[in-house]
Amino acid sequence: MTIAIIGATGLVGQTMLKVLEERNLPFTNLLVAASDQSKGNTVAYNGVTLTLVSVQSALNAKPDIALFSIGAELSEFWAPQFASVGTTVIDNSSAWRMHDNIKLVVPEINAKTLTPEDKIIANPNCSAIQLVIALHDLHRHFGLDRLVISTYQSVSGSGQSGIDQLKNEQSGIAGEKFYPHTIHENALPQCDDFSDDGYTKEEWKLINETKKILNDNKIGVTATAVRVPVIGGHSESVNITLSKPAQLEEVAHILKNTAGVVFLEDSYPMPLNAYGSDHVFVGRLRQDHSHERSFNLWIVSDNLRKGAATNAVQIAEYLIANKINSKALSSALTTDGQPNSL
Ligand SMILES: NC(=O)c1ccc[n+]([C@@H]2O[C@H](COP(=O)([O-])OP(=O)(O)OC[C@H]3O[C@@H](n4cnc5c(N)ncnc54)[C@H](OP(=O)(O)O)[C@@H]3O)[C@@H](O)[C@H]2O)c1
């Protein structure tokens, strides 16, 4: 079993290495790839030094699973090539998420839909993952009529360039600007580029991906995405309107028992505490007194872990455990076609 990390030097790629160290995936080879400029450099994995190869070399090795985090344009170019040699690609970019025949997967919610034919699997946007983890059980029990979301997104969500701009500005160093304005001591109501209708692409990702993951196009979703000078961890203020009436206590009970959620009653979650954790933290649950089926929530999670790397590794775990990726399936068969344990 060979796993490849494509984009292993990036923030998400580095976090994938950490998450793989922490979990017991049964792979024997780990390939690490990044841009040609990084070829020959090294990254650390579990005390071992791994040499970076080019993406082409990783493709030539036909890995069983490739965890991609190199951005949308490069993913559009490379992912189909890996898929065509039998690799299952789990992609962190926005390239494939809204394609009709590509599954957008949060394992706690919809991993069961995966089949060996899914050679490219999309990992959702970081803000969407923490939102749907918090809401999927409420959606199942009561239905969701409407979501009004405001995000407070950390600079690590923009990759290393976002962190560099904030740190440079904090230290008074002139450097490259990733954002259109100063981010230090500021809040930018712009994540990603603007669409023609005045929403940003990040806001559209939240709207569209939420409906796709929850498999419910009837949910009304609107969002404002804001970049804040926090290094890691995204926060979301969310007003939800349920389809069926529910008491505050019932909503709290569901949240306490939702897979992946840590529900805080006596304190509230903050990005500093969520940083480094795989959980989605939910707090500040309140009845919205202006509407009997509406509630307010505050949702926080580490965008690099559950919002990206951990979710992708969990998808890989699911594929392996359920012998879904076809290469794992063929290596799990003995000559008489009977399954071996991997
Ligand atoms: N940051 C987050 O919170 C987050 C969350 C969810 C999804 N994502 C998505 O994950 C992807 C990566 O994000 P990131 O935050 O890790 O960005 P990043 O820190 O900027 O890392 C980018 C990675 O892409 C590699 N790369 C750049 N040009 C390349 C090329 N021509 N060929 C091969 N590799 C190349 C870089 O390698 P070099 O070091 O060699 O340049 C680096 O490993 C993006 O699609 C992003 O939207 C990010």
Descriptive report:
- The chain folds into two domains: 2-124 and 306-331, 3-Layer(aba) Sandwich (Rossmann fold), CATH 3.40.50; 127-302, Dihydrodipicolinate Reductase, domain 2 (2-Layer Sandwich), CATH 3.30.360.10.
- The model is unreliable at 328-342 (pLDDT under 50).
- Helix 5 (126-142) packs parallel to helix 7 and helix 5 packs across helix 10.
- It has 342 residues and is α/β, with parallel strands linked by helices.
- It has helices at 11-22, 55-60, 72-84, 107-110, 126-142, 160-171, 201-213, 248-256, 271-274, 305-321, 326-331; strands at 2-6, 29-33, 42-45, 48-51, 65-68, 88-91, 103-104, 120-122, 144-153, 220-227, 234-242, 261-263, 280-287, 294-301.
- NADP nicotinamide-adenine-dinucleotide phosphate (NAP) binds at residues 7, 9-13, 34-35, 37-38, 55, 69-72, 74, 92-93, 126, 156-157, 159-160, 303-304, 307-308.
- NADP nicotinamide-adenine-dinucleotide phosphate binds at residues 7, 9-13, 34-35, 37-38, 55, 69-72, 74, 92-93, 126, 156-157, 159-160, 303-304, 307-308.
